[in-house]
Amino acid sequence: MVHAMKNSKLRIGLIGAGRWARMAHIHGWLRDPRCELVVLCDTKLDVARQAASEYGVSEFSDNWQNVTGRRDLDIIDICTPSQTHYQISKASIENGKHVLCEKPIAYDYTDTSYLANMARQKGLKTKLGFTFRYTPAMRYAKHLISSGFIGEPYIFNGYEQNSQFLDPNTPLRTSQVKTEKPGLNVSSLEGYGAPIIDISNWWMNTPYTAVIGTMRNFVPERAIRGLSGYHKVNIDDASIFMAEYQNGGIGSIQTSYVTIGNFPGVEARIYGKEGAIIVRTVLEFGIPEIIRTASPNKVEFKQIEIPPQFYPPDYVLGENMNHTWLSNLVSNFVDEIEVPTEKNEGNFEDGARVQEIINAVELSFEQRRWVNLPLPTKLECA
Ligand SMILES: NC(=O)c1ccc[n+]([C@@H]2O[C@H](COP(=O)([O-])OP(=O)(O)OC[C@H]3O[C@@H](n4cnc5c(N)ncnc54)[C@H](O)[C@@H]3O)[C@@H](O)[C@H]2O)c1
Hints:
Shape: globular
Number of strands: 17
Radius of gyration: 20 Å
Helix content: 25-40%
Mean pLDDT: 95
Structural class: alpha/beta
Distance between the termini: 30 Å
Number of helices: 10
Largest sheet: 9 strands, mixed
Bound molecules: nicotinamide-adenine-dinucleotide
């Protein structure tokens, strides 16, 4: 890998210095000794300035076009609202940058695929903010699956419980409020379903061949960030779907804004011929995640220790879980960029596959039928 600046660290420009960037992304970059976070950019200059001063980043900007066009940066990290991801990612790739972008890249999977191809042709690495792939328990589970612990995978069950939006006074972000369709618009399935669908792809390691799903709205009027009063919000605040996989396996996924339980609320279960694994990434009584396993001879699920290699090298017990997970994500991305390798997990292509499944579940609900995957592709992309 030739760095933008000779004999230097990888240089990063981060775009969108809001809540999630401060809670998670910035900490990942600051922690990795192979990286230098060079510039923070936000359309609100004060936000960029304040974050730069708080985290000791030398430069700030309010112009993402200038940042993506800089020749002295290697990686662009995009933490802006979802509607802007496609445009900023496209410009970054066109300018020869590796890109980490929050999900989703686009609401239509073919647009995400288009950028994945563009990056691949240019020899650039991409990564989605699929945070839950990088939790120590999820990574250890994947390691066990790859080592043959469960044998042939039969069944995947995924849950995304999250009750923060049970209360209509908790404001939705504008990106969560879609209104294009007269019927239900996809929201929880996309925002909260994406991570667990990604885990299902990653763990089952076989393509989805068909889905059938349903969606509901339980809270018809809600507060929206930046607006006063309540608004009719015709979105899915819960969805459930069933899946069939190419290896003959089957699965189910539930995603929701209104199911009681603590955040982040991700639970993944996989059952195979030789063993079964449950990971709960749910902050409960101070513990952010647990992994439990069982086998045909020991059918009582038992909690197991996560080995230290699945944590950041300088991990401190009890540290903020978002810092741990983003540190793992950043470290994995830097490995993929620094070492000459084809490896690039959780990339835009994986993002396109997740979005395609979401689009298929939406179609299944609208047409009340099973929908086969892959979906027919659009001929032209933006
Ligand atoms: N992976 C996860 O677990 C996870 C968790 C939370 C949020 N997210 C995602 O992260 C993204 C950001 O969410 P957030 O909660 O931080 O939102 P936020 O509104 O707090 O922050 C977004 C920031 O981007 C800035 N911005 C908007 N357009 C811009 C542009 N064109 N150029 C530069 N700056 C721009 C805004 O001024 C704001 O400061 C969203 O896509 C969200 O879905 C992911």
